[in-house]
Design brief:
By secondary structure, the chain is of the alpha/beta class. It is about 35% helix and about 20% strand. The protein is built from 21 helices and 22 strands. Helix 10 crosses helix 11 and helix 10 runs parallel beside helix 15. The radius of gyration is 26 Å and the shape is globular.
Amino acid sequence: MQPQINLIPEVKHIVVRFCGDSGDGMQLTGNMFAQLAAEMGHEISTLPDFPAEIRAPQGTLGGVSAFQVELGSEVYTSGDKADVVVAMNAAALKVCALGSHFNHPQAHFDEAFSLFHRNAIVIVDTDSLTDKDLEKALYHTDNPFTELGLPESVQIVPVALTTLTKEALKDSGMDNKSVLKCRNMFALGLIYWLFDEPMEKAIHLLEEKFKKKPALVAPNTKVMVDGYNYGQNLALNVNQIHLSAEGGLTARPSSGSNSVSGLSAQQSLYTSIAGNKATAWGLIAAAEKAGKKLFLGSYPITPATDILHELAARKDMNVMTVQAEDEIAGVCTAIGAAFAGDLACTSTSGPGLSLKSEAIGLAVMAELPLVVIDVQRGGPSTGLPTKTEQTDLLQALYGRNGECPAVVIAASSSANCFDFAYQACKIALENMTPVILLTDTYLANGSALWRIPKLAELPEIKPQSVPEELKGQYNPALRDERGVRYWAYPGMEGYEHRNIGLERDAAKGTISTNPENHELMVLARKHKIEQIANTIPNLQTIKPSNLQTSSTLLVGWGSTEGHLHAAANELGCDLAHFNYICPLPKNTREVLSQYKRIIVCELNTGQFAAYLRAQFPDLKIEQYNEIQGQPFAVERIVKFVQAAI
């Protein structure tokens, strides 16, 4: 069968999905393609999508792992549906074609549920479509394409990836299992050819990926080059895909961010960065700017562990890390570091945040700076540990005993995880308070184009200090004009003190059970958080690209910004996206009250909508919610809003 591909050769942006078994290297393959795309000057957004099981049986539907990337210009999301699909086996083809309906025995291709477009190019390994493969993937006939009901417009490109890889490495001396692990590189080479990417850069990138395993460089390079040449040399009726001239770099700042974005491409260096790595680097930059040692006390948990890994490798940057025996120990070591005068952080996910809640309350009562990073995942309990949700918001706001206010902020892209990790540190150090930074699985594992900032460009951080005149008279209840407690720590002669978890006297700092004093202190801690609204950016609405006046406002927070931005552009609605949640920006009521319809969209049952209703009970708040362990699909938001208005 002669592969035939017919695609408009020049496009503005395009979505590619790699899918196969958990052992087929789809995450590596997708990451390499995305990184090269970023280095070639394209905006990117990625979605690693892998099963929660450690390793489902090979070739089964439950074991399908995927990596999706959208690249080009004006890229806001990782894409609803793929334009180009690489399916390494029969199970991957089925899951991609049927989407969430792959387990339904009578399901057929339906673009509403499918993960690729009706006109998609689908590259399939024909060596993985044997009777045994089809049986494991629960096909009932020997023709998967007919059984799936694929329309004629789906362009199937059959490639014997396994056979061609074996042929490429027949003289390598590698065993069969090792040879088969290189199939993904043949597929990647073919995709590089399809997108006309330079092989010199691709080879250099592969050498970097395998620099700690040099024996793997030569065979993987050969297979990747052979995949490229396969596309180059065969008489395919195909136009290579070229992204249009507008697909170059743009510096689009995040809404509501004290972002360092905004310089032109010519003035800046860009790279691809994952959210967890960006978070870790934001903490390092903040410590450097503040002149503090960085301490992270954490316990490994999916999907936050990469933050601990990244920081543990940065001893050269004066970073201290402790892998504690449990979540409680992790946050308690961080509180000890904060008492000692360090920039103290702890990282976790939703289950760990609940375990840390009492200790966070201690940091609130002791008024110590602490950064708590919650990389949200599907719950409750162990739930969906590799899937994404926004379901920890109310826990972050209220999940502690007593009147226990803390700052809550949220990143909205993989790249600006750097910005908001930096902001979390700045707020904590300057206001002597715990700050909870919410990211999620989509941001943490996904990647985006990131402009590498210079330290001098970053906002100044002035850690709270204690005046010289208080030497010999200091106690931990003394505050500045903002109501922020002065920070003294061990080793500062003349500032010796005790800091406690019991209520303290407002004047003396000693233990107090006086009822009026307790109320006074509760209000003082509340006021301290409220006054932070004076230092955060006002809420800015994002207008649709056609600049029409809209009476409908989409509202979101955290990782949904890109999807809502794309939906708002399509609908002609305005968008208000929140990164600062507690306290809210000072002009929040002013902005929201300008619109007849306010629709809050979030990946939970309506937590932020409920929070806004509590803050502004006179405003009518509508909501759109999904809780499927996946990011929003732009088309579903658009359909809902169109029906609503």
